[in-house]
Amino acid sequence: QAQLVESGGGLVQPGGSLRLSCVASGRTFSMYAMGWFRQAPEKEREFVAVCDWTGTSTVYADSVKGRFTVSRDNAKNTVYLQMNSLKPEDTAVYYCAASGGWSKEANKYNYWGQGTQVTVSS
Question: What angle do CA 119, 121, 122 make, to 5 degrees?
Fold first, then answer.
């Protein structure tokens, strides 16, 4: 079965940057669209970004557009989320997910990582 493991979260001050990584194993990574989602306490899981299997097509939530960048390295079975100009409202657990097709809906993704905590605070 496919397995996804996120890393790179932590505590950062407003305006700072973090890069999240997600390493996949168990399936042919290059054929999956890879999405990033986040969930804050007492809120629903929300879409952040998605990258197609080639890495050439990306879509971002309006709340992160211009600040976050999703990319992938298929040779390393890894997808990245570069987060710049972080705001306190970006605080959440961030999850990577794999899908056979592009979607902004969390329930369309077949495989999920365990998440990594991102906290933006002074």
Answer: 150
Residues 13 and 50: their CA atoms lie apart, in Å, by 25
37-73 tens-digit pLDDT: 999 999 999 999 999 888 889 999 999 999 999 999 9
pLDDT, tens only, 77-101: 899 999 999 999 999 999 999 988 8
Tell me, letter by letter, the H, E, C secondary structure of 46-88.
EEEEEECCCCCCEEECCCCCCCEEEEEEHHHCEEEEEECCCCH
